[in-house]
Write a structure and sequence with these properties.
With 282 residues, the protein is of the alpha/beta class. Helices cover 38% and strands 13% of the residues. It is built from 9 helices and 6 strands, in the order ααβααβαβαβββααα. The longest helix is centred in the N-terminal third of the chain and has 19 residues, at 40-58. The model is unreliable at 260-270 and 272-282 (pLDDT under 50).
């Protein structure tokens, strides 16, 4: 008896019943499998995302170019640098990224002496762990913040190189600001190498702890919008002004749009859920 010449109809990559949900999240769900392994396409996509995250950490922050772009958008700027001389030092010594170098401290003192009055708010743009994030999102985020705070006096935007979050406390203290909001590139993830965060500190001074700050995270077109982040920051600033403090004592009470019903938003079909629940492929 001759062998059956018909090739096997079994697909090389077994799909997942939740595949339709991939259109609604960047999370690595329903990637399928080949035997006990990931499909090649999924493995290559993971490797690319990992490389993009590593590149974001090491990418240089072009503060000079951003200063030009912000000035064209109507912002005044000041440039400062942390005590970390370069990127390798910044990554090895987080403590150096939390303090200004001597020249930057002098520059801010001169700016404070030349100002008519201390500002209500100082906005700091810091490279953090993703200069890519601030390059892409800092300017539209600053515009959204400016539109939300018409009654606040705001100092020139401070552009901080090799900066950690706590560096904003020293900047705010030297400028005599009531509050500091630091826009910083967040630690890259495997689906978001360009996520921006905002850290708010009321009455900033050197030595403030993380418990005394409020964080607005995942700001990017695929995450929290510029407009919603600006609304949240404005709400937190008003709350901090009333309370005289930020951090764990200050709660975000900004109203958010009511989410649509899950079934309507994702257009799910019961057959899809039943197929997953009934699956015996373990």
């Amino acid at each position: 008896m001759s062998a059956d010449p018909t090739p096997s109809a079994t697909p090389l990559v077994l799909t997942d019943p939740w595949t339709a949900l991939r259109a609604y999240t960047p999370a690595r769900i329903a990637i399928g499998r080949t035997g006990a392994s990931q499909p090649t396409s999924a493995l290559l996509a993971f490797s690319l995302a990992h490389a993009q995250a590593r590149d974001a950490v090491h990418e240089a922050f072009d503060a000079a170019l951003m200063s030009i772009e912000l000035q064209e958008a109507g912002f005044q700027t000041l440039s400062v640098h942390s005590r970390a001389a370069d990127r390798p030092m910044y990554l090895r010594r987080p403590d150096l990224g939390r303090r200004l170098d001597a020249a930057s401290g002098d520059r801010l003192r001169q700016a404070a002496d030349g100002a008519n009055a201390p500002p209500d708010l100082v906005l700091v743009v810091a490279d953090g762990l993703s200069a890519l994030a601030v390059t892409r999102h800092a300017q539209p985020m600053l515009k959204a913040i400016r539109a939300r705070l018409p009654g606040w006096s705001i100092s020139p935007v401070v552009l901080a190189e090799q900066s950690r979050v706590a560096l904003g406390d020293e900047v705010g203290e030297l400028l005599g600001a009531r509050a500091v909001a630091l826009l910083v590139g967040e630690r890259p993830g495997l689906s978001s190498p360009d996520s921006l965060g905002i850290y708010l500190t009321w009455a900033p001074r050197v030595g403030r702890s993380d418990a005394e700050r409020n964080c607005i995270s995942n700001i990017r077109p695929e995450g929290l919008s510029y407009e919603q982040a600006a609304a949240t920051l404005a709400g937190l600033l008003e709350g901090a002004k009333r309370l005289g403090a930020s951090g764990i004592m200050l709660k975000d009470e900004t109203p958010t749009p009511a989410p649509e019903a899950l079934g309507d938003r994702l257009d799910l079909k019961l057959d899809l859920i039943r197929a997953s629940d009934a699956s015996t492929d373990n």
